Amino acid sequence: MVDESMKNALRHWTVVQPIVSSYVHSLVRDYSARDDLMQDIAIAVLESYDRYDPAEPFAAWAIGIARNHVRLYFRTVHRSRLRFSDAFMDQLSESFSQVSTPEIHHLEHLQTCLDQLDGRAKQLCEARYVENQKPSQISQWLGGSPNGVAKALQRIRERLRECIDRRVQLERGSV
Amino acid sequence: MNPSDLDLVHCYFDGEITEAQMLQLERSLAGSIELRQEFVRISILDEKLSQQLSKTVLAGPTPTPTRSPTPSQAEIRLPKAPSTAAPNQAASWSSIVAIVATLAMLLIAFLVGSNRNQLSASQEIHKMRKSLAFGDRFYRVDVEQAVLPSKKQPNKKQIEQHDERRPPKPSLEGAKLYVRGTDAFVLMRFLQDGTPFVTGSDGKVGWAIAPNGPVRVSQDKQRFNRDLPGHEHSIPLSNLSQGLTQIQKAYHVQIITSSPGDAGDEQDAVLVATKKRGERGPSRIEIQYASNSGRIAQMRFIEMPYGPERLTLRLTLIDELTLLESFFHHSHHHSSDHQVVSDDMPQP
Fold first, then answer.
1. Cβ of A7: how many Cβ atoms within 10 Å?
2. Rounded mean pLDDT of chain B?
């Protein structure tokens, strides 16, 4: 039987999970490690929910837990130099704590915007995000220079952002 | 906001940033709220793209490439293993396997009392390598999953290995692998009717006995190693010692052990190796072993490249034994009247 406290914890977690996940995504570049970390973080958040002070924003509290897990990961498992410092991770956790839930909801338009991409852009996205290839690897498949592929991916992300913003504006106008 | 700083943010998310650039990026981000906000927005979009596109590929047909294939791509015909699932279904299975594997690992950690990284990974690997130094081993190979990634375009190596002259590889499912030291091995795969397809090396001569046709031999002892996955990424199943060295180099390693007092000669520890970004090879390797002796009971390779496929396979130790010297020679596995041809000479 799930008690009321656990139900509240799950409700809160469901709302902030995408923001916490993005925070972890921004720091840990290894996909499988990220998945493992998110599971550990979810368990830690639910287990320590009774210590959460409702006067504080839940997102900031959950991101604090995530930050500790990420730090531990970098200290014990992944001693890469390609990582941000602890001090900067704190700074970044503040920035992520300020992300609003509607901002996350706007991404519901992403699929529509993806559908509008041309064939080449779709290929690049698929290579980057489905096959998890870096620009230098993609350029070997699809041609072009690594820098050209990197720039193309950057432009695609910018176009997608613009498309999402346009759709949000349209939605607001129609209300 | 400096455009070059923004470029660095994108480089970072694409996984192509140098150490010096990383330091520069952190300095720029720390000094600019605007850039930090942009970094957050890009991170949110980047993560959503990973999720959304995986879902799209799972849910339905992917866009048709607009670029016509290059001549080399058009010429090759990749063999399709009968056991290979359809890409969409396979991708879905891949996710399920990944989730199940993760849950299984969590369960193991929970049951035996997680004691992560208390032991030095390198010490554990050294112990395993020592345990492999003597005697012969007999393993069974089980293929949990074979996936042909959707729209994956073959690279040059795959093209070389899958030209039209080479027949499709027999399945590794249920294969028997006998290994001695670092060079000698016998791999027995079985066709659907049970006919064996045997390849091996006695440490000096590599050989292959196909069900139809002559016995092929080569002075290159590694010649037929390609029938075993992993050789392209320095993790040949016939040389686990070499594989362990590669794991140390190219993987993040985590050790999960049982509580003190539980240790017997049974497998009581798990090494979990997760591939570092940019490295090649299986995405994850799990090794069950005895922490006191380093004896490996089972290895599990997740998403192991094998030609155009990605295999998830298990290598289970069935027996430790002493085989005859001749067992690793081809003549042990065929009749004396079977024709033997050298693969080193040009065939007419």
1. 10
2. 74
